[in-house]
Amino acid sequence: MRDVAKVLGLPPDQINALADAFSRWSDSLPSPERLREYGFDADMPILKRVLALTGELIGFPRHLSQHPGGFVISEHPLETLVPVENAAMADRTIIQWDKDDLDLVGLLKVDILALGMLSALRRTFDLVHLHRGKLWTLADLPGDDRKTYEMISRADTIGVFQIESRAQMAMLPRLRPEKFYDLVIEVAIVRPGPIQGDMVHPYLRRRN
Predict the structure, then answer these.
(1) Which DSSP category does 85 fall into?
(2) pLDDT value of residue 201
(3) pTM of the full structure
């Protein structure tokens, strides 16, 4: 929507307001009533054009991207099975299909990821050992530290793997995790499937 509105000449403040009128959890266009709530005239020709073009583009990729840790494994040379092209980096190639295409033809895709937070924890343990003389591991960290969960419930989680995204930080003060299993639910429920299936609000109502 933002790109369409920008191309059609809407000013940045109106683009931001219009973006707020869209639901984060749905691909549907905002209703005329919701548009009026955000100060828009639903009968404006330019607005109708923005919404019409946005509706046509929903579901299309916004841009092409390369998965940094995705590997495709096959019994036969990949270039005989799928379209392959040179990547920007020397001696690297990428497949032009996405993960869904690969799944349809039965090719195995494996994601190999590195988590920076694990390195940060290791360096922290090294510093504790150096300055405090204590040799800690992950197993030594308490799973029920009250102050930690208070920080999490305030969404003070920048740099914390899995719960630092905007969507996760918006949910944390509402869910108010008190134990590790609460975080398991938090990470699992802030996903496209549960959100589109309208599972979030019923869970919060029952929990609270």
Answers:
(1) E
(2) 87
(3) 0.50
